[in-house]
Amino acid sequence: MGLVEFFLSRWQDILELTLEHLLLVLIAMAISIVLGVSVGILITRSRILAGLVLGLASIMMTIPSLALFSLLLPILGIGTAPAIVGLVAYTQLPIIRNVYVGITTIDPAIIEAARGMGLTDRKILLRIQIPLAIPASMIGIRTAVVMGIGIGAIASYIGAGGLGTYIFQGISRTNDNMVIIGAILISLIAILADKYLGKLQNRLVHAKPKTKGWKT
């Protein structure tokens, strides 16, 4: 059976697995982005804390994803819970690091000028530092999302479902069609997600600042 014929004969199962994969990654990445951006902003206030957090996030990325998921099984059981926790942990480094770098590399003269205008540290963060750090932050988010989509395939190994199920089943059954379809769809989702986030990044970067935001 050819690849197209196989796809048409199994499209309902493939659609179900695709939606499972999308939901899993969407939940994990939403948590990862909120957590990563928050931590990235927090550690800009302390170089020591930044070193510790970035070091820990780097260590998490050195752990093979399958091993990380396996370590979570005794704690969270089989299913989506360990998959989400694993994906969040695995995708923190690019987000935290890029948010941190984006904020800490802003020209100090800009910050001093804002303070001279009477802006508080909180207003400087919200109205100057975060907007100026958007390009670097979005690069980290885009990297994390693409990683999450790919690593999400391995989550099927612990019963989380998704397109990885097709890949693992295809390998065990020596069915090339299953492996190819699963891999193609995961790659397509990653490409589309990165393209959408790229457009979002351009919109955020070129958004006109609100004049009211500069009032103290």
Protein architecture, described:
With 216 residues, the protein is mainly alpha-helical. It has a single domain (3-210), classed as MetI-like fold (Orthogonal Bundle), CATH 1.10.3720.10. The chain contains 11 helices and no strands. The protein has helices spanning 3-9, 11-42, 47-62, 65-76, 80-90, 92-104, 108-116, 121-132, 134-151, 164-172, 176-205. Helix 2 crosses helix 5 (80-90). The N and C termini lie far apart (69 Å). The mean pLDDT is 89.
Q: Approximately how much helix is present in the residues?
A: over 70%
Q: Helix- and strand-based class?
A: mainly alpha
Tell me the number of strands.
0
What's the N-to-C terminus distance? 69 Å
| Number of spatially distinct domains | 1
CATH architecture: Orthogonal Bundle
Strand proportion, as a percent range, falls in under 5%
In the CATH hierarchy, the third-tier topology is known as: MetI-like fold
Which word captures the global form?
elongated
* Order of H and E elements: HHHHHHHHHHH
CA gyration radius, whole angstroms = 21 Å
Largest sheet: none
List the total number of helices: 11
Query: For the record, what is the CATH homologous superfamily label?
Result: MetI-like
**How much is the average pLDDT?**
89
CATH class: Mainly Alpha
Would you identify the regions where 5 or more consecutive residues have pLDDT less than 50? Answer: none
